[in-house]
Amino acid sequence: MTVIEEATALLRKGGMLVVYDGDEREGEADLMLHASFASPENIERLRRDAGGLICVAISDEISKLLELPFYTDILAGSDSSIKEMECTKTAYKDKPAFAIPVNHKGVFTGITDNDRSLTITKIAELADQEKDIKQKFAEDFYSPGHVFLLRGSGIEKRKGHTELSLELAKKAGLSGVMVLCEMLGKGNALPKEKAREYAEKNGFIFMEGREIYG
């Protein structure tokens, strides 16, 4: 069984993956799983073991159905001085994938493991619907919230963690909604070998970006 086959099989069972994008890019590893399995326990694990920002990557196809904007486009369209704050390129030469931060209307504050689990699993449920997806998104969620959405651009256009996670979901036959969180060490990103050790210790699969798009 190839590493892709192992990874996609694990995703379908609700397991987690550790994906390192590459030395030439961020040089970071993200802990990720499919959004439909974002239980409070799994959100706690992302928060505790990874420690970065918990985000939800949404495929380009679903993003278009939701009419989900890139956050940079919101800034660019502003009439105030914040327009000048638009980040057109990151340190690794890509346009940011950030869209808007949301909460589901059923949460309390939105930040607890239970609340973020609710928001994320409701996004996953929405992605599986075939009708009225845009209307339901506007009715059931609000912004700003505590779960940042990331809009995918497709692996052929961008090879960040957003696209890597969504490509894995696609290969697994799952909807294009993934949860990911950067793995942090002391003061900086968790080194690649430490991320690999974490994956092996916990029965997860460690992958590099080139194994997904190469």
CATH top-level class:
Alpha Beta
Cα(first) to Cα(last) distance is 17 Å
* Biggest β-sheet: strands ordered side by side in the sheet: 4-5-3-6-2-1-7
Which of globular, elongated, flat, extended, rod-shaped describes the shape?
Answer: globular
Low-pLDDT sequence parts: none
Question: What share of residues are in beta strands?
Answer: 15-25%
Order of helices and strands: HEEHEHHEHHEHEHEH
Largest sheet: 7 strands, mixed
Structural class of the secondary structure composition?
Answer: alpha/beta
What would you say this structure looks like, in words?
The protein is an alpha/beta fold and 214 residues long. The chain has one domain: DHBP synthase (Alpha-Beta Complex). Helices cover 39% and strands 20% of the residues. It has helices at residues 3-12, 40-50, 60-66, 71-76, 113-127, 133-140, 161-171, 192-202, 209-213, and strands at residues 17-20, 29-34, 55-58, 98-104, 141-151, 177-182, 205-208. A seven-stranded mixed beta sheet has the order 4-5-3-6-2-1-7, sandwiched between helices. The chain is globular and about 50 Å long.
What features would you highlight for this structure?
7-stranded mixed β-sheet; 39% helix; alpha/beta; single chain; 214 residues; DHBP synthase; globular
Quick summary:
The protein is of the alpha/beta class. It has helices spanning 3-12, 40-50, 60-66, 71-76, 113-127, 133-140, 161-171, 192-202, 209-213; strands spanning 17-20, 29-34, 55-58, 98-104, 141-151, 177-182, 205-208.
